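Colleagues,

Please find the record for the two-part complex below.
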Amino acid sequence: MNSVISSNITRFLSLVLIQVLICSHINFLGYINPYIYILFIVLFPVKNNRLLFIFFSFLLGLTMDLFLDSGGVHAASCVFIAYARPVVLKFAFGMQYEHQTMKFNAVELGAMLTYITILAFIHHLILFSLEIFSISKVILILQKTLFSGIFTILLCILITIIFSRKMK
Amino acid sequence: MQQIINFILRNKTFLLFLLLFALSLVFTIQSHSYHKSKFINSANFLTGGVYNSMNNISVYFSLKSQNQILAEENNHLKSLLFNAENKKDSTYIDSVSYGKKYKLTTGSIIKNSYTATDNVLLVNKGRKDSIKPDFGVITSKGIVGIIGEMSNNYATVISILNTTSSISARLKTTNHIGSLVWDGKSPNKMQLIDVEKAAPVTEGDTIVTSGRSSIFPKGVPIGTVIRFKLDEAENYYEIDLLLFNDMTNIEYVHIIENMDIEEITNLLNGINE
C-alpha cells in the first residue's frame, strides 16, 4: 500500500518537473507541445477513493497553472478528465474493468491506446478552448488539439511501455 | 434536512467535481478579463525558484547568441557616443527634455513563453529591487512587455504577445498614433490598428513607442511595416509589422521605471475630478 502512495507522489513530482522544464518548451513547428503530465491521471490506481482522485487531479492542474501562468485552464481540464475517467475506462477495457481485476501493467496495448487517446483529446480540447477563449478561433483550437494531442499520445505510450514492469 | 444531507452524500463526487471545475473556471475567466491573476501566477518563491535554478543551467546554452546581441548593442551605443561628442562645442542645452528621468534595472528572463495566446514571462527581479506593476520591459532591440504581478524576488511580465494587451505606438517619421495588438498567430508579427487614414504609411516604415502611456519612453523601436490595408469601415489603417525583437530568444532585459509617473497620474486624476 505504501509503495503505491510513494510511487504516485514520485510520479506527480517528476511529471510536473518534466512538463514545466522540458515539455512546455519544445514548441515543435512553432506551437506543438506535449502535455505528458496527464499520465498521472491516466495511471492513477483504478481502485481508489474518487473524491481524493478528483482533488489530486485538481491539485496537479493548479500546479501546472502556477508554473505556466495560465489562470485555471489546466485545473479545469484535469478535473474534467478525472471525473470522466470511469466512463472512458469502461469503454476502453470493458469486462476487465468491471470485474475490478485490471492492472495497467498487464493490459493490451490496443485498449491502452484507445484509453489514452480519448482522455488526451478531451483534455486538450477543454484546455485549448479555455486558453484561447474565443469562438471565432475554433479552427485554431481544433488544430492545436489535434497536433498536440498526437504528440502527447505518442509520448505517453512510449513512457508507459518503457516504464511498465512486466510480471513475467 | 435529512433528505438534503442524503442528497449531498449520494452526489458528493459530482458536487466536488462541480465545485472544483467552477473554481478553475473562475481562475480562467479572471485571468482573461484582468490579464493579471492575483493568486495563480508564477511569481512566487516555489515556481520562481524552480525556474531560476533551471535558468542558471540553460543560460550557458545561449551565451553565444546573447554575446552577439550585446556586442551589437555596444556597437550602437558607441556610435551614439562618438557622434554626440562632435556636438559638444555648441553651448545649447536642451531644457525641454531635461527633467525626463527613467531608471533602468537589468533583469534576466527566466521563463519565456510565446506559443499560447496570452503569454506571460517571468523575470528574476521583484519587490526587493523596487520593481512595481506597470513598469515597462524592453531589450536592446525593442519592447517585450509590462510588469504584472510580483513577489519578493520575481515578477511576471505580460508579454506584448498577449491578445489582451494593447500598447500605444506611432510611425517614426510622423506622429500618427495607433494601438499595437497581437492576433495570436505568429510570434514575429504584430498588428498596429486604428492608424489615421491620412498617415503616409509605406512598407518598411519603422514603428516606435509613442510615449503617451508613460510606461515606455518615447521612441523605443518595435518593428517595421510589412503589409498595410484599410479596415472594413475604410477609416483607419490596419498595419502588419515584423518585430525587431526575436521574442523566442530573450535573455537579458531592461526594466524601465518612469520617475515622473506619480506626478503624471496625480495631474491626470486632478483633471478628471
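The mean pLDDT of chain B is 83.

Comments are welcome before we finalize the supplementary table.
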